[in-house]
Design a protein that fits this description.
By secondary structure, the protein is mainly β. The protein is built from no helices and six strands.
Length: 95
């Protein structure tokens, strides 16, 4: 199944966190936090302004972004976890 986000929504695939700390300690799965960094898998065309014109998206497919910990809605598609969120929930683009 393929998803195409509407308006100013984006699909983000969370990036995996490292299982080992800088000191060499392995972190168990139960103690890990959800990563707040991900890659844009798909982006919608942008939202409409008051005049009915499209406002272009700032992010595009392939961008690495930071987002709020509880932003968006998690969806499981073909065994892969994808987060659907608005562009406003994205805090920064990682370069």
């Amino acid at each position: 199944m393929k998803l195409k986000p509407l308006n100013d929504r984006v699909l983000v695939k969370r990036m995996e966190l490292e299982e080992k700390t800088a000191g060499g300690i392995y972190i168990p799965d139960s103690a890990k936090e959800k990563p707040m960094k991900g890659e844009i898998v798909a982006a919608g065309p942008g939202k409409l302004d008051d005049d009915g014109k499209r406002v272009a998206m700032t992010v595009k497919k392939g961008d690495t972004v930071l987002f709020a910990k509880y932003a968006g809605m998690e969806v499981n598609i073909d065994g892969e976890e994808i987060v659907v969120m608005r562009e406003d929930d994205i805090l920064a683009i990682v370069s």
